[in-house]
Design goal:
Blueprint lengths: L2 H22 L5 H18 L8 H17 L2 H12 L4 H15 L2 H12 L4 H8 L3 H19 L24 H6 L1
Protein name: Sigma-70 family RNA polymerase sigma factor
Family: Belongs to the sigma-70 factor family. ECF subfamily.
Pfam families: Sigma70_r2, Sigma70_r4_2
Length: about 180
């Protein structure tokens, strides 16, 4: 086996799972996610130079470009998650569904920067490289995305009519938002 192939196999082994997870969160079909991931590594193989191997941000940016229109077609998932959130669940699974619904309600750019930071573990410098902006802009986007997610996860406002009010102690556990779930 030549050195180029061995170096590429090491790159593939190190980053394949991360790229696949990145794509899986962005398309509804698992098989399509695998195909897009392999397309990403095919491009990397064609352009691969063992003296300057690609880093994860470049691979994620390539995957992002490949996802393209598929990235924006997540309405089906949003509808399914909303229906899933309506099904009574235990406190544990309800919080995760609520977070996932909130994530899908975010703008695509906000969701992406949060996923890159929290799920993929990229630094602000790496996020900036992956999405094609400066590090300061990546930090600002992350800050705005956090604020938007926080606003979505806040407990709903109380109704104005006194007859509609339900005292907090009479509410079912786990149905007051993620914040109350964490405090219960």
């Amino acid at each position: 086996m030549d050195d180029r192939r061995a170096a590429f196999e090491a790159l593939f082994t190190e980053h394949h799972a991360a790229v696949l997870r990145y794509v899986e969160r962005r398309v509804d079909d698992r098989e399509r996610a695998r195909e897009l991931t392999m397309d990403c590594f095919e491009i990397a193989w064609r352009r691969f130079d063992p003296t300057a191997p690609y880093r994860r941000p470049w691979l994620l940016q390539t995957a992002r470009n490949l996802v393209g229109d598929t990235y924006r077609r997540r309405d089906t998932e949003r509808t399914g998650l909303a229906a899933l959130a309506a099904i009574p669940r235990s406190d544990e699974s309800f919080a995760h569904v609520e977070l996932r619904v909130a994530m899908t309600a975010l703008k695509d750019d906000d969701r992406e920067v949060l996923e890159l930071f929290y799920w993929d573990g990229l630094s602000a410098d790496e996020i900036a490289e992956a999405i094609g902006c400066r590090t300061a802009a990546a930090w600002k986007r992350l800050s705005r995305a956090r604020a938007a997610l926080r606003a979505l996860l806040e407990e709903p406002a109380e109704p104005t009519g006194s007859q509609d009010r339900v005292p907090p102690e009479a509410r079912p556990a786990g149905h007051g938002g993620v914040v109350s779930y964490a405090l219960d």
